[in-house]
Design goal:
By secondary structure, the chain is α+β, with helices and mostly antiparallel strands. It has 2 domains: about 30-150 and about 375-464, no CATH class; about 165-375, Transposase Inhibitor Protein From Tn5, Chain A, domain 1 (Alpha-Beta Complex), CATH 3.90.350.10. It is built from 16 helices and 19 strands. The strands form 5 sheets. Strands 6, 10, 11, 12, 13, 14, 15, 16 and 17 form a 9-stranded mixed beta sheet that branches. Helix 7 packs across helix 8. The mean pLDDT is about 95.
């Protein structure tokens, strides 16, 4: 058969003019906005400190890619929208990414192996070995020799949060939640979860506003609150070491309404407001309020709410009586009672503001978890749980970097409150031609880029 070589592409003509396309534009990148991420890293040092959480047992004389470069390559790629290690077989030849990770040989001309010439970055296999290293590499281990210190990574997440404040706040609210990461293989810790109806992991997230404080990968055959007490205790201790006077409130849904967590809060001067699962006894306690709400709904045809509160204790699962706030609500066609349990007094937070202003605000955490997914925190295809935890850390650090860009660079712009995926699409995905000389790397950004004004403003903000 005749072998055809496609050298050009003829498209439908425009007003009598031929439209011809060829892959002959030279070295062009579609991710030139990543330079703003690099500038953000210069301001914050997030990647540098994250890289310091790894111990490198490789022989220095045989290394072509330092740990700092491997980490930066992986995290920047996640931020720019490249979710898989397979993507790095093409990305490793991108000189823009080489510039971002501070590769002095940004064109790969000095690579030792001939097959690597022109590819300054690490390939997928090298990056994969970074994720698969055991906790203590054996003496005979030949490849997997970069060990992650997860305790240092946990401390870094909280430290970045502390540094984001110029002065200690009077009060902070820590949100806890769990979500599902579907699994499609036979990963370690894989179990079927009845609520989500799938095999999955059940990671625990803790946020304070936009700031990520904890991302813990977990098996799904556990209670939603499993391990949360240990994580909260660790985070609160680190926060109070820096801000001893800050008032801390925990907020979560009914999956975290456990006596052990509430008792710890009461013993450690931490307030809480947790959802409380419905039961028949609670429904009986607010029967008059439910009747009142139903009467208002019948009169106006609009949803009606009546609030109540009372002291409540369980038969044997709680160690003490606690304040419960109830929302008696009547919607079209159904009653909708809801309950929260809290340590805060009615003088501080009356029933209705406590529920509507404080507790319901936890819904914004769902947006933060969606941002994690846009940075591929659900990529858990490694065989072992430890490797999938490290992938979760990598996505978390990509989120820290994007948040820092939003906080430091995007203030005063139309993207100041944009989510990560919007920032990527509108600001980071910029076409540019790259030319490398002895003394300079020229990056010619697309003249038709629509967000030039925002780009200039972000650059100026990051220089401050």
């Amino acid at each position: 058969m005749t072998k055809c070589i496609q050298s050009g592409f003829e498209f439908h003509p425009l007003a009598g003019r031929r439209i011809t396309a060829k892959f002959d534009g030279g070295t062009i990148t579609s991710d030139a906005g990543g330079l703003l991420l690099r500038q953000t890293e210069r301001r914050t040092g997030i990647l540098k400190r994250f890289s310091a959480c790894f111990r490198d047992h490789r022989r220095a004389d045989r290394i072509e890619h330092r740990v700092e470069e491997l980490i930066a390559q992986r995290v920047y790629a996640l931020a720019l929208g490249y979710e898989d290690l397979n993507d790095h077989d093409q990305l490793r030849a991108d000189p823009l990414l080489a510039v971002m990770v501070d590769k002095r040989d940004c064109e790969g001309k000095q690579r030792k192996q001939e097959r690597d010439q022109g590819k300054p970055q690490a390939g997928k296999s090298t990056l994969n070995r970074l994720e698969l290293t055991a906790g203590v590499p054996g003496a005979k281990e030949r490849y997997k020799k970069i060990v992650a210190d997860t305790e240092s990574m946990d401390r870094l997440l909280v430290q970045v949060f502390l540094e984001a404040h110029t002065s200690p706040p009077q009060e902070i609210v820590l949100d806890l939640d769990a979500t599902d990461i579907p699994l499609h293989g036979h990963q370690e810790g894989r179990f079927f979860h009845g609520f989500y109806g799938d095999y999955c992991y059940l990671p625990l997230y803790i946020f304070c506003g936009d700031h990520l404080l904890c991302a813990r990968q977990r098996s799904s055959n556990i209670d939603a609150s499993a391990g949360s007490l240990e994580e909260v205790a660790r985070i609160v201790a680190q926060i109070r070491q820096a801000w001893p006077e800050v008032h801390i409130i925990l907020r979560a849904d009914s999956g975290f309404c456990r006596d052990s967590l509430m008792s710890w809060c009461e013993e450690n001067q931490v307030d809480y407001v947790f959802g409380f699962a419905r039961n028949e006894r609670l429904r009986q306690l607010i029967a008059p309020q439910m009747e009142q709400a139903a009467a208002r709904h019948a009169q106006t045809g609009q949803p009606a709410r009546v609030f109540a509160e009372f002291s409540y204790e369980t038969r044997d699962s709680w160690s003490r009586s606690r304040r419960v706030v109830a929302k008696a609500e009547q919607l079209a066609g159904k009653a909708n009672p809801r309950y929260v349990v809290t340590s805060m007094a009615a003088e501080q937070w009356p029933s209705q503001p406590l529920y509507e202003q404080l507790y319901c605000a936890r819904g914004d955490m769902e947006n933060r978890i969606k941002e994690q997914l846009s940075l591929f925190s659900d990529r858990a295809s490694a065989e072992i749980l430890k490797a999938n935890q490290l992938r979760l850390y990598l996505s978390s650090v990509a989120y820290l970097l994007m948040c820092a860009l939003r906080r430091l660079g995007l203030q005063g712009t139309e993207l100041a409150a944009a989510q990560c995926i919007t920032i990527r699409q509108k600001l980071l995905k910029v076409g540019a031609q790259i030319r490398v000389s002895v003394r300079r790397v020229w990056i010619s950004l697309a003249s038709s880029f629509p967000a030039q004004a925002v780009f200039k403003r972000v650059y100026a903000n990051l220089l401050c």
